[in-house]
Design a protein that fits this description.
heterodimer; A: mainly alpha; B: 403 residues; Sulfite Oxidase, Chain A, domain 2; 5-stranded antiparallel sheet
Chain lengths: 180, 403
């Protein structure tokens, strides 16, 4: 037992020595400092906070905070351009691809992350977590991905399989401009 | 004390000189006034000549907090873009950040999470490097760049600066990266809190956490006080106003690496994590909107760059691609930096189609636009590095080939 323990200690020491800081500049952040900015959400939903909402709740928030740019039904507006949220399923192979949350975004939790951090454009980060769940539910429901009265929370959002989940492939370049 | 009295003597002498000049001015003939008048005084922060008018091109949209402005490539000398003319790309406006209050957090799969002040970062060993940053949407095929009237609008989302900062690998080593880590997530302090996932391999290679640009602090629109500079990789991943680096084992597939900056293929799939900006070049003289006064000698000039290393060769054609000549490459010729190419040319006064083709040190040859679209399809938009011809008309005006 003693031998095992000292072997573990020795290994740990070796690992720490191998990666010990060379300059010692900077300090250890507090857990609060990390939590204050660590808001990113993984595709599997890791990082989603507590809260919930339905498309029915989201309809009013959307009309007030989102529709000006994205259109009353998510069809997009004049400016900023390219902001449609709804439609486009089956269009990606056609001469007029329409890339929206419904047709293009691969994961639902990343939609939540983007709305939470960057929307609405004029007042980013001012929606409550419940409002973000509701608005995302409304967008997904306009795309026919969930039902209007389905309650979205962290678990429900992570379970959704977006239509274009498998639509992304790795970088294949250089594919043109062959070497001479 | 000596300094003060010599300054006083200088002021007295200046006053006397001004008096003398004023009296001269009364006596002198008008045509002699200019050269004899004393010029403008010393000033603490310089500005360009009032006769110089180069400007970034702004979009015609109403909202200017989201979008891009274009570098006037045809009006730039050498390879360095003046900081004030470096292209901009904004997702949620330019934040105002007090450097004394700014912090960089490194956390996640590390042995020791760390938080740095700007002073901390400036204490650490620094690196400087000249490299280009090019927006993945430069020459974007969906926004009319293919037939844009000027090189500013077709190619102006590339710029080149000397960047100074700390190696990201140094900061990550200080924190101690866990063996299972594979990616980092970089996040900005702009209102959109823009975030991108970057492979750990590149992070440990040549990425700079930069606070300096062309000898001074970063411009606000370039990420003041801190940004990533990722040599050779698409501009969007060079996160500005950098506030956080999280070491992780998988990419986050954020909005700007899934919904945007992904490349649509003919079968409806899209390529993701297409980071490298492939070899590209463009003729900046003669280019769209310019006018050749008369037949005779001109120097064809342009810029070439590659995210995979040095530019080895640039060829120029003045006959629509039938024949090509090797252009001269100006020094310095640095990896992942703009490289200036030059070719003496005698214009005979007839219509000419002028274009350039770059080859980088890996042997990759810049393709034609048609070759790109043949493989990647008509829905392909970002990462367009196709050859760009310009038409010199018999009257000396230069236009897009379609124009």
């Amino acid at each position: 037992m003693w031998l095992v323990r000292s072997a573990v200690v020795a290994a740990t020491c070796a690992a720490l020595f191998a990666q010990s800081p060379k300059y010692g500049v900077g300090r250890t952040p507090t857990p609060e400092e990390i939590a204050a900015t660590d808001i990113s959400v993984l595709p599997d939903g890791t990082g989603l906070p507590e809260g919930h909402g339905t498309a029915a709740d989201g309809r009013e928030v959307y009309a007030r905070r989102c529709a000006r740019c994205h259109g009353p039904k998510g069809e997009g507006g004049d400016e900023p351009k390219q902001s449609p949220l709804v439609g486009g399923r089956g269009s990606l192979k056609t001469p007029k691809p329409l890339k929206t949350v419904g047709s293009y975004w691969p994961y639902a939790p990343t939609v939540w992350d983007y709305v939470n951090r960057a929307m609405p454009l004029d007042r980013p980060g001012t929606l409550t977590h419940n409002q973000v769940y509701s608005v995302v539910a409304f967008i997904l429901s306009m795309n026919g991905i969930i039902e209007e009265h389905e309650v979205l929370d962290a678990k429900a959002l992570a379970r959704i399989k977006m239509p274009n989940r498998d639509g992304f492939v790795p970088d294949a370049r250089p594919d043109v401009g062959k070497k001479r | 004390m000596a300094g003060r009295s010599s300054r006083r003597r200088f002021l007295e002498a200046t006053a006397a000189l001004t008096g003398a000049l004023t009296s001269c001015k009364r006596a002198a003939a008008p045509e002699e006034e200019g050269p004899r008048r004393i010029g403008k005084p010393l000033r603490a922060y310089g500005e360009r000549s009032e006769f110089e008018k180069s400007l970034r091109a702004l979009p015609t949209t109403k909202i200017l907090e989201v979008g891009q402005s274009y570098t006037p490539l045809a009006e730039i000398y050498g390879i360095i873009t003046p900081s004030a003319l470096h292209y901009e790309r904004l997702h949620s406006g330019v934040p105002t950040i007090d450097p004394d209050a700014h912090r960089l957090l490194i956390h996640g799969m590390v042995e020791r999470p760390l938080i740095f002040t700007m002073d901390d970062l400036r204490r650490l060993p620094s690196v400087s490097r000249i490299c280009f940053i090019e927006c993945a949407g430069n020459s974007h095929l969906g926004y009319g760049a293919k037939d844009a009237p000027t090189v500013q609008l077709s190619h102006g989302l590339v710029s080149c600066s000397e960047w100074t900062g700390v190696s990201l690998s140094l900061l990550l080593s200080e924190a101690g990266v866990d063996p299972g880590a594979k990616w980092i997530l970089a996040e900005g302090a702009d209102a959109a809190k823009m975030q991108r996932s970057i492979p750990l391999e590149k992070a440990m290679d040549d990425i700079i956490v930069a606070y300096g640009q062309n000898g001074e602090a970063l411009r606000p629109e370039q990420g003041y006080p801190l940004r990533l500079v990722i040599p050779g990789w698409e501009g969007n991943a060079n996160v500005k106003w950098l506030r956080r680096l999280k070491v992780v084992d998988q990419p986050y597939r954020t909005r700007d690496e899934a919904s945007k900056y992904t490349d649509s293929m003919p079968d409806g799939t899209a390529r993701e994590f297409t980071f490298v900006m492939e070899a590209k070049s463009v003729v900046t003289f003669p280019s769209g909107g310019q006018k050749l006064a008369a037949p005779g000698f001109y120097e064809i000039s342009g810029l070439a760059w590659s995210g995979r290393g040095r530019i080895d060769r640039v060829e120029v054609s003045t006959d629509g691609g039938t024949t090509w000549q090797a252009a001269g490459l100006s020094e310095p010729r640095l990896p992942m930096a703009l490289t200036r190419f030059l070719l003496p040319w005698r214009w005979d006064g007839r219509e000419a189609i002028v274009q350039s083709r770059a080859t980088d040190e890996t042997g990759y040859v810049q393709p034609s636009h048609e070759a790109l679209v043949a493989v990647r399809g008509a829905n392909y938009e970002y990462h367009n590095n196709g050859i760009r011809p310009w038409k010199v008309r018999a009257d000396g005006s230069v236009t897009d080939v379609a124009g």
